[in-house]
Fold these 2 entries.
Entry 1:
Amino acid sequence: VMTVWTPEQASAFLAATTGDRMQACWLLALSTGMRRGELAGLSWSDLDLERGRLQVTTQRTTDSDYQVVTKEPK
């Protein structure tokens, strides 16, 4: 069973993160459902401002030695 936040909980979280350097990331995660690795793998080339689109092309995670691994998303 997947548990998700209510709109009120999401609003409270965003209010609590006001001013946080990662606030745009939190908003993107809440509004798109993107995974942590997908968010970490985003680059400016994934964003098309003219069309208002964002494309997930890579994901970034760490391996068992805590080395950053970049690969295709699921």
Note: The helical segments are 7-16, 23-32, 36-40.
Entry 2:
Amino acid sequence: LDWRIMDHDGFVGHMGPIALARAGENEWRFRLDLEARHMNMGGVCHGGVSLTLLDTGMGGAAWQAGGHALCATIQLDSHFIAAAKEGQRLEGKASIIRRTAELAFVEGELWSGGRRTMRASGVWKYLSKR
């Protein structure tokens, strides 16, 4: 896959580097290597890290599917399934289920250490340039 680093100065820059790659016509992959700074007090990946990675990866898929049109998350439903640990790679998959001129409907999931850790579905709205 042609991995690209999502590098910018915003919030995601504090978490990353996050890599994103197109895996098919309507499918993308993304990943984050987990470090001590990503862990919660219980010693496993903080839920906010997982949620941010899914939001970023799924939003990146919507952005690319929309021809790099700016878009914003307007709905994100998520389910935590298992914990990821320091030193593991958190890998994600995003699939565009449907896209209109204004919206992208996306499903995603995270895996770590051979286990699914989270799944989500969401909607992204394409924003008009002002």
Note: The beta strands are 4-6, 18-24, 27-33, 71-80, 89-99, 103-112, 115-126.
